[in-house]
Amino acid sequence: SSRIDPEQVPRPAGPSEGVKEEGGKVYYTDKYHIPPPATAVCTIVDKGSCSCEFVRTSVNQVPAFPSTANTAHVPIVVVCQPFAELTAKEEPVPLINFGESGPLRCTRCHAYVNPYFQWQNGGREAICNFCGHRVQVPDDYYFPLDEHGRRKDHDDRPELQKGTVDYMAPRDYSDSMPGVPVMCFVIEASQRSVQSGLLPQVMWTLRSLLGFTKEPARVAIITYDSSLHFYAFYPGSDCARAVTVSDMEDPFVPCGHTSLCVSVEDDAYRVQIEALLDELPAAFADTTAEQVAGGSALRAAVDLVSAAGGGHVMMFHSTLPNTGLGALRHRDDLRLSSKPDEGGLFTVQQAPFFDGVAADC
Question: How far is CA 159 from each of CA 93, 112, 129, rounded to the nearest angstrom?
Fold first, then answer.
């Protein structure tokens, strides 16, 4: 029979046994050959190999020969989740600070020092476990070896014991010193956004969340319909100043980022931000704008955040961008059905624009 038996279709297996205690079964990364299922309740103990909570592959056995791989045609995927949430029973990821010299790395493949580096020449040389290249150990990282060829400070070095560690990045790892991040809120202000309740709801939510910012942050607000509306904040002013940009084919940031991105912890700016969030729903209540330049707004927001030193762009929209940069069309165009152009319904729209924005991020 050519019919597929559902019972023979491979499927993820659930936990083989019940959870008997808090944290579930304990798995040591240097002992298990098959990681626990992704849905299992368990505790992972890092013993030199990365926990499957941070890096998990789609297959547990990799073909040793190219001929086997070509015959199997099984794709291999690696899912990386560097900031996975740990359970209460698991140890936190150690944070290591090597100062301005930075961590020891292979000079050929740039792999970081790890528990599988080998040491020779009395500890003066390290052999990379990825490419086999010999690396001269700097004087500030040198330590003699014991009779087994292991560094005598092995037990004091988390990077030589754990498969997952965090490094404090030295100054030369970045072109500029990190500053206070910007949270740029880009909100659609078209007729549909107002009538659906999106605009007033977003404003109310942002207004209520201003008091819950735990870390220092700067805020920028942009609203858009067929134009872009920036809001500049100046010391000593009672309200924000609106600046409108109408060129949607070549959008730009109309003024300096220091006036558009301001700290919510500064009382002088905090009052202006709160007043602006209270006033915007009424300001756009009678709008009749149906054209939405979402792509242009996104482009301008990315440029603003980049000029300010980095941060996050959070965009709230209810309408497909239909004008300006990155304008899209609805895919459910029945006029193209059963016609030669029907294949165009499924092609990626505005790929160069969105690829460019992603590259700039």
Answer: 11, 9, 14
Beta bridge partners of 136: 125
Rounded-to-5 percentages of helix, strand, coil across the chain: 30, 15, 55
Q: Say how far residue 9 (Cα) sits from the centre of its chain.
A: 34
pLDDT tens figures, 87-106 = 888 999 999 999 888 899 99
H-only helix segments in the chain: 66-72, 191-196, 198-209, 257-260, 267-283, 294-307, 351-360
54/56 Cα distance (integer angstroms): 7
Q: How many whole angstroms separate alpha carbon 182 and alpha carbon 218?
A: 5
Provide the 8-state DSSP code for 326.
T
Q: Whole-prediction pTM value?
A: 0.61
User: Superfamily for 182-328?
Assistant: von Willebrand factor, type A domain (3.40.50.410)
Instruction: Yes or no: say if 118 and 93 are a contact pair by the CB < 8 Å rule.
Output: no
Q: Which amino acid is at 125?
A: E
Class (C level, CATH) for 95-170: mainly beta
Give strand pairing partners of 314: 185
Domain spans, the chain = 20-92, 95-170, 182-328
Q: How far is residue 110's CA from residue 92's CA, in Å, rounded to a whole number? A: 25
Digit-coded pLDDT (tens) for 101-125: 889 999 999 999 999 999 999 999 9
Same fold, 95-170 and 182-328: no
